[in-house]
Amino acid sequence: MRSGNRTPAWATRIKQLRTRLQMSQSALAKKLKCSSMSVSRWERGINEPPAQCYLALGKLAGKPQCWFFWGRVKLSRAYLRRLM
Fold first, then answer.
1. How many CB atoms lie within 10 A of CB 46?
2. Are the C-beta atoms of 21 and 46 separated by less than 8 Å?
3. 37 contacts: CB under 8 Å, gap ≥ 6
4. How many beta carbons lie within 10 A of that of residue 70, not counting itself?
5. pLDDT tens track for 22-70
6. Nearest to 34, CA basis, from 49, 18, 55, 14
7. Residue 74's Cα: distance from chain center in Å?
8. The domain at 9-83 falls in which architecture?
């Protein structure tokens, strides 16, 4: 959630990723199977994405940026190593 007038780092990173991918909010929403209003709210720091969207954002971001998004849902390299 947004505190005061500061935009949270996760909101800024989502917007930066969308811009880097040259996608509209609608296009990103379609890719993530959510609404464009959700993406808008994430980018403004009003609502935080659910875990499945953070995982998908990480996949879209690629390495090494994926770890920021995956870290938001406590997914770490060590955890992935244990799974493999």
1. 14
2. no
3. none
4. 21
5. 999 999 999 999 999 999 999 999 999 999 999 999 999 999 999 999 9
6. 49
7. 13
8. Orthogonal Bundle (1.10)
d(CA 65, CA 84): 21
Single-letter amino acid code for the residue at 84 = M
69 within 8 A of 48, measured Cβ to Cβ: no
Give me 66's structure tokens.
């994926």
What's the token pair of residue 47?
């609502």
Distance CA 83, CA 37 (A): 35
Q: CB atoms < 10 A from the CB of 54, how many?
A: 22
Taking the mean position of all CA atoms in its chain, how far away is CA 41?
A: 12
Task: Please state the pTM of the whole predicted model.
Answer: 0.85
